[in-house]
Design a protein that fits this description.
- The protein has about 260 residues and is of the alpha/beta class.
- The protein has 2 domains: about 1-145, Response regulator (Rossmann fold, 3-Layer(aba) Sandwich), CATH 3.40.50; about 150-255, Beta Barrel (OB fold (Dihydrolipoamide Acetyltransferase, E2P)).
- The chain has helices at about 10-20, 35-45, 60-70, 85-95, 105-120, 125-145, 190-200, 245-255; strands at about 1-5, 25-35, 50-55, 75-80, 100, 150-155, 160-165, 165-175, 175-180, 185-190, 205-210, 210-215, 220-225, 230-235, 240.
- The strands form 4 sheets. The protein has a 5-stranded parallel sheet, with helices on both faces. A 5-stranded antiparallel sheet has the order 10-9-8-12-11.
């Protein structure tokens, strides 16, 4: 069975895809997600073989979600789902990335699923490369936008604007979050998931369910049990754990032996 995750911010669209997929004997819908962060959490927990991934999701788009998925050691197959956009379609075609146009037709879905079946049977390793090529224009635009971005926190009786580039890390703190910058920590009003979506252009690396770090501020990395690690961040006393799901990408990011 091909375990499949449906990701779309609109429930009617998810229901329609589920109805179409139920006609496929070798497809098992293992979950649904309404945004990019839910996709990342479910992929880490349930390890689907395939994601039907909507591109136009609020916060973290489908393309940005795909970029984050590449940090996982096991990269699922992806079929992007999108409303008609000629430039997007041309980009998908050039890079040979599967996509479906809304409203999704059964015949078009069947063709895309057949390609997925062939890739899974042949152990195709080129999907990540094709998606990386697709993401290059997106990353270039993100680099331009990141030149001036602020996150404003409230401290006692005044506001403190923090440059994205100065944020050392963010952490879960109950229903709120903690933002670390300049040897200090600040409370932020939203949960970690919402904060990570807001900071998606800050080049943070999600190393654990409860932490995202800025690799520029890593001071040292200490081996931990089960081939994992803990990280010492500049200005942060506690050691930050790295989940096993993220150790491979951490090594790749830092050119570790």
């Amino acid at each position: 069975m091909i375990r499949t995750l449906i990701a779309d911010d609109e429930k009617p669209a998810r229901d329609e895809l589920r109805w179409l997929l139920e006609k496929e004997k070798d497809i098992e819908v293992c979950g649904e997600a309404a945004n990019g962060m839910e996709v990342l959490e479910q992929v880490e927990q349930d390890h689907p073989d395939l994601i039907l991934l909507d591109i136009q999701m609020p916060g973290m788009s489908g393309l940005e979600t795909a970029a984050q998925l590449m940090s996982l050691p096991r990269f699922p197959q992806i079929i992007f789902v999108t409303a008609y956009d000629q430039f997007a379609i041309e980009a998908f075609d050039v890079n040979a990335v599967d996509y479906l146009l809304k409203p999704v037709e059964q015949s078009r879905l069947d063709r895309a699923l057949n390609r997925i079946r062939n890739r899974l049977n042949s152990d195709d390793q080129d999907l990540e490369k094709r998606i990386l090529n697709l993401l290059k224009p997106l990353k270039a635009e993100q680099g331009k936008a990141q030149a001036f971005r602020k996150l404003t926190v409230y401290e006692e009786d005044h506001f403190v604007p923090l440059d994205f580039a100065d944020i050392v890390m963010v952490a879960a703190d109950g229903r709120q979050s903690l933002v670390y910058a300049g040897n200090r920590s600040y409370s932020y009003r939203t949960g970690l998931r919402e904060l990570e979506t807001l900071l998606q252009e800050a080049s943070l690396f999600k190393c654990h369910r409860s932490f995202s770090i800025n690799p520029r501020f890593i001071e040292r990395i200490e081996p931990w049990f089960n081939s994992s690690y803990k990280i010492k961040m500049k200005g942060v006393d506690e050691l930050i754990p790295v989940s096993r799901s993220y150790t491979s990408e951490l090594k790749k990011l830092l050119n570790m032996d």
